Amino acid sequence: MRALANKKAEFDALGATLIALTPELPDYASTTIDKNEVSFPVLTDLKLEVAEKYGLVFELNELRAVYEQRRSLTDYYGEGNANRLPLSATYVIDQKGIITYAFLDANYRYRAEPTRLVEALKHLRGEASPEHLVLQFWENTWNPPYDLNLIDRLMTDDFTITSAGKDIAGRENFKTWVAGFQKKIGDLRLEEKDTFASADGSKVTSRWIARGKNRGLFDLPADDRKIEFSGIALWEITDGKLSHNWVERSAWELHQKLSQ
After folding, report:
1. Given a cut of 90, is residue 154 above it in pLDDT?
2. What is the pLDDT of residue 25?
3. pTM score > 0.90 for this model?
4. CB 38 within 8 A of CB 3
5. pLDDT at residue 161 tops 90
6. Which contacts of 116-120 are long-range, i.e. CB under 8 A and separated by 24 or more positions?
């Protein structure tokens, strides 16, 4: 929260209102606010009602003992929530109530980078960097929440992906291709390693690593084995949207490993 507080002036300048929700009871939330010198509203989601509406609540069950080593969950969250917690999540919501950027992770240590939130806000004003378009696609479509609708906002109608030398033309066809790919990888996570734009902003190059579990890649048996493969993608940008993607990935190496 301290990192967010340090960016508050930029959020304000972009016309955003920063609000945090916590499952902590008010007395403990006050301690957190003071400790992190928070200068924006922090509200208590007393019964996790908001978190439940966003589908963020999970049961601790056997993990509760691990959490209890650090603090009394009943003291911090109340008796009714002692076995439940929300995932760490951050959203940018526009004035129509539409989520335009999301970050969530089961590991509470991972939080949205404030600089990425600034870029997401700039995107609402048509001021985002070319790199942001690609990064948001990686973050929100190839990672939770696996938002396929984001493709409608980021890609042109005639978007084309060239994968393994084959063109898949049209935004809707691309969306179907992504959905099919996602079904073949369980617990999919994509980690961006490098992303940079050309001098004129018309091209973006990115290097990434994808990880997950095999759910039938290459029409091989879905054995849930852990998988990892790398890739490089070149993106073309037209009128502020992604219009073409050329991608190469370490498919041969992955196929060899899964065939063993």
Report:
1. yes
2. 84
3. no
4. no
5. yes
6. 117/4, 117/7, 117/11, 117/90, 117/92, 118/7, 118/10, 118/11, 118/14, 120/92
The torsion of the CA quartet 36, 41, 42, 47, rounded to 10 degrees, works out to 180
Q: What is the mean pLDDT of residues 79-107?
A: 89
> What's the gap between Cα 182 and its chain centre?
15
The amino acid occupying position 85 is L
Separation of alpha carbons 17 and 41, rounded Å? 9
CA–CA separation, 28 and 217 (whole Å): 47
Confidence of residue 28 (pLDDT cuts 50, 70, 90): confident
The partner residues of 90 in beta bridges, in order of sequence, read 103
CATH 3.40.30.10 positions along the chain are 1-128
Range list of β-strands (E), 94-184: 99-105, 155-163, 166-169
φ, ψ of residue 125 in degrees (nearest 5): -100, 5
Measured distance CA(122)–CA(126) in Å, rounded: 6
Residues of the chain with CATH 3.10.450.50: 129-260
What's the confidence (pLDDT) of residue 30?
Answer: 82
Torsion of CA 180, 183, 186, 189, to 10 degrees: 30
**CATH number for the domain formed by residue range(s) 129-260:** 3.10.450.50
Confidence of residue 26 (pLDDT cuts 50, 70, 90): confident
